[in-house]
Amino acid sequence: MAAHEITDRIAELIDEEHRLRAGALHHGGLTREERLRLKDLERRLDAAVELLHRRQALAVFDDE
After folding, report:
1. Contact status, residue 60 vs residue 3, Cβ threshold 8 Å
2. Nearest 5°: CA angle at 49, between 42 and 17?
């Protein structure tokens, strides 16, 4: 997966996270399913950011 694909995926995950959190504010909280989805989004976002960091580090070392 290319860096731009990773950043696109991160943006999608953040957008969904924001939608869930905004919905929770307007509707008095999250349903059980929404809480589970939010946890999954957080896990996926952490993994995507970590992958992006690894790719960036490899790019720095490959340029040397």
Report:
1. no
2. 30
**12-19, long-range: CB < 8 A, 24+ apart:** 13/41, 13/44, 13/45, 13/48, 14/45, 16/41, 17/41, 17/42, 17/45
Query: What residue type is 12 in one-letter code?
Result: E
Cα 32 to Cα 2: distance, rounded to the nearest angstrom: 34
pTM of the model: 0.83
Instruction: Give me the tens of pLDDT residue by residue for the chain, a chain 64 residues long.
Output: 888 999 999 999 999 999 999 999 998 999 999 999 999 999 999 999 999 999 988 888 876 5
